[in-house]
Amino acid sequence: MPICDEGIGDFLERLAARVPVPGGGAAAALHAAQGAALLAKVGRYTSDAQYAQHEAAIGRIITEVDELRGLALRLADADADAFTAVNEAYRLPGISEEERDARSAAVARALVHAAWPSAQVISVAGMVVDLAEALAVIGNRNVISDVAAAAEAARAAVAIARVNVEINLASITDAQAGLEMIAEEAKADAIIARAEQITAAVREQIRA
What we know:
Blueprint (H helix, E strand, L loop, with lengths): L7 H9 L7 H22 L9 H36 L6 H42 L6 H25 L5 H11 L2 H20 L1
Helix pairs in contact: 2-3, 2-4, 2-5, 3-4, 4-5, 4-6, 4-7, 5-6, 5-7
């Protein structure tokens, strides 16, 4: 069953259980999805006549964050599927030299695939932060705290996803795939810093 079709309680039960998936990768993706959803809420509250001058920008933001929410949810499922494949690869027989070689190759492929959802979560969360930055300026002041909440959810998504990428990189022997994921990982610090700046700016607005 796709994660988006589960009840929250059911998902958390699975997250808490002694089973391989879902795990941190799915949790990271759901943080990104929640950030996108919060921005959609702010956007939809920024649709009265008093915000008419921002109508086009708000419409674009709502469309983009709705798409990002769906993408993040798909990444949560992709992460679970990928780590299921890793576990299956490790369970392949390894008695003969031929079997050991086949298992090693299968594990290597599975680990590369397992790292990609978290790498993509970093990019998705970065786009959530981009849009939070825009909404922090033009969004409805009555729900501006949700912009900060969205930025913090995206920040958490990036922090978790980066750890997952780092762990997987340690086991990946495919040099090209490793370099590509390092490039995604390198975005993390800048995204986290910007998310923190957005939260600080929103807090300033609230106190003003």
